[in-house]
Amino acid sequence: MTLHQINYIFLRCIHFENIILATIPTEVGFKLTNKQDPTTTQKLEKVRNIPYQSTMGNLMYCMTHTYLHITFAIGVVFQFLSNPRIACWKTIKHNFRYLKSTLHHGLKYY
Questions:
Q1: 35-61 burial, b if ≥16 CB within 10 A, otherwise e?
Q2: Residue 35: CA atoms inside 13 Å, Cβ hemisphere, count?
Q3: Alpha-carbon gap, residue 81 to 19, rounded angstroms
Q4: Cα-to-chain-centroid distance, residue 36
Q5: pTM for the whole structure
Q6: Which of 4, 11, 84, 87 could form a disulfide bond with 52, CB atoms 3.0-4.6 angstroms apart?
Q7: Ramachandran quadrant class, 65 (left: phi over 0; alpha: psi -120 to 50; beta: rest)
Q8: Do the Cβ atoms of 63 and 70 come closer than 8 Å?
Q9: Tens of pLDDT, residues 74-91
């Protein structure tokens, strides 16, 4: 029996079906800080319109069931759940790019 996330990674719901694939769960030099706050009203409005919490819920589901190796990146981004930044959204998109490239990977039980 093999568990994989083909049916549970909801790329269409968040308009990620045409994203470029990634080979690692996080970018090299990955770091999020409070200094990355949006400063202009345009950037603040852009961050407010992002489906951040529902997307994080999707990643948390994947992380807890079969993609345990994305735990570090998701844990760091989760710290900014109440006040998301554009850098957080870029990290989330990168994780979905990775998940899309590994859709057929899974846990095999003998």
A1: eeebeeeeeeeebeeeebeebbebbee
A2: 1
A3: 23
A4: 18
A5: 0.76
A6: 84
A7: alpha
A8: yes
A9: 888 888 887 778 888 888
